[in-house]
Amino acid sequence: MEPAPGPQEKFHLITRNLQEVLGEEKLMAILKERELKIYWGTATTGKPHVAYFVPMSKIADFLKAGCEVTILFADLHAYLDNMKAPWELLELRTRYYENVIKAMLESIGVPLDKLKFVRGTDYQLSKEYTLDVYRLSSVVTQHDAKKAGAEVVKQVEHPLLSGLLYPGLQALDEEYLKVDAQFGGVDQRKIFTFAEKYLPSLGYAKRIHLMNPMVPGLTGSKMSSSEEDSKIDLLDRKEDVKKKLRKAFCEPGNVENNGVLSFIKHVLFPLKSEFVVLREEKWGGNTTYTAYEALERDFAEQVVHPGDLKNSVEVALNKLLDPIREKFNSPELKKLSNAAYPKAKPLEKHTKNSEPENTVVPSLLDIRVGKVISVDRHPDADSLYVEKIDVGDPEPRTVVSGLVQFVPKEQLQDRLVVLLCNIKPKAMRGVESQGMVLCACSTGEPRQVELLEPPAGSCAGERVYVEGYEDGDPEDELKPKKKVFEKLQVDFRVSDDCVAQWKQRNFLTKLGTVSCRSLKGGTI
């Protein structure tokens, strides 16, 4: 039997791979006296994906350190966050989360009997908790509540009051779960500092806060439930895992915003203490790494090829997913999955001997943020540019645009643009164009054209969607005969605030609205 770890070893286990710890001295003081009580909460909104293995891996560390760990299924938070989970689906989604999180923990060898599982509505509707919500609302400013939720609560043009309550409830959870510390992603930092500021005003102790880094998704941005290409679902088939990893951003030698490397660092290495790169003998054979830093160095020096790295992650990931898939193959859990996340009902009305009516929705379009890597004049057409644009695919796309008379070449170079990615490739004066740059156009003469601009801080490959159509899957390739884009484009407009819209619903990324500079009321 292994000896129990001492306070210093416990501190190392609890804090390794974290980005930030608020309250290190208090943490060490508690570990010298007793075991740490900690909780991790998850709002029961979109389907959990493989990035959830990152907090699961840390929960395994907490248990190794002897911590008393509570997992909170924050069902009420899910409803308050701009109704990401409709009230009628709340119970079903919470049950889905309970089953899938437990399956994930079992797949990495975490004993469930050492964990405590709690639902938010088990205590958040009590008289005492409700009274504390009112007490807190009497001292918290609107500014602080909005600021605290800025990176967690869904940001919309006309925010609901419920989103302002969200940070306060999360702060109160620390007191009502009777913990010493809360664990979450670094995107929770503003809520954590909000809790440190306001809990003492109610007479409650300030807690310790432990923060994981945000793991990049497969496109290089944050892995998100609402960004289909950025994440691998826990129930994805093996062929889907292969397809998504093949498209993942993993540039040779580039270790920045590399979701494949980050998954190895934050999930696979902590679980196994090693990682095996699988290669054919003619390319050097398999290599076992016992330190992540050595793998990152070899990748940076291009000793390890992206293709080998992806193939190796695919094998390791499927080993983690196999028991989860098997568990959810039961009729009961299949039924629960379909009920908790029902497929959107099609809008079409079929009539005999006619094409379907009203079948076209914006989620069919694969629109992404792109970064212009190079711009050249078309060799055979003075009015056309030939651009190389990074949209998160393994290779940049070649795009031909008729922008010569509207946008100077130097203004296009290195610029972030909005690109329609699933139109059928088309030869334009001898050069195949693999996408279409979306622009705002004036309605009067002389004709003016401005590029649509994603929010500041966006990354190449991030999904652009229309508000209310976040969850649909885009077509792999639009069929020209169906004229999907043309039917939707009829209702594309620029608002009086210069925001791109479809039927008065904003074009969005996870960072905010897509806009142009000045063409109010224009078309797109």
UniProtKB/TrEMBL annotation:
InterPro entries assigned: aa-tRNA-synth_Ic, NA-bd_OB-fold, Rossmann-like_a/b/a_fold, tRNA-bd_dom, Tyr-tRNA-ligase, Tyrosine-tRNA_ligase_regulator
Compartments it resides in: Cytoplasm; Nucleus
Record-level Gene Ontology MF annotations: ATP binding; tRNA binding; tyrosine-tRNA ligase activity
Record EC number: 6.1.1.1
PROSITE patterns cross-referenced by the UniProt entry: TRBD (PS50886)
One cellular-component annotation, GO: nucleus
Keywords: Aminoacyl-tRNA synthetase, ATP-binding, Cytoplasm, Ligase, Nucleotide-binding, Nucleus, Protein biosynthesis, RNA-binding, tRNA-binding
Main location: cytoplasm
Enzyme class: ligase
Domain (TRNA-binding) ranges: 361-465
Listed SUPFAM superfamilies: Nucleic acid-binding proteins (SSF50249), Nucleotidylyl transferase (SSF52374)
Reactions performed catalytically: tRNA(Tyr) + L-tyrosine + ATP = L-tyrosyl-tRNA(Tyr) + AMP + diphosphate + H(+)
Family the entry assigns: Belongs to the class-I aminoacyl-tRNA synthetase family.
This protein's name: Tyrosine--tRNA ligase
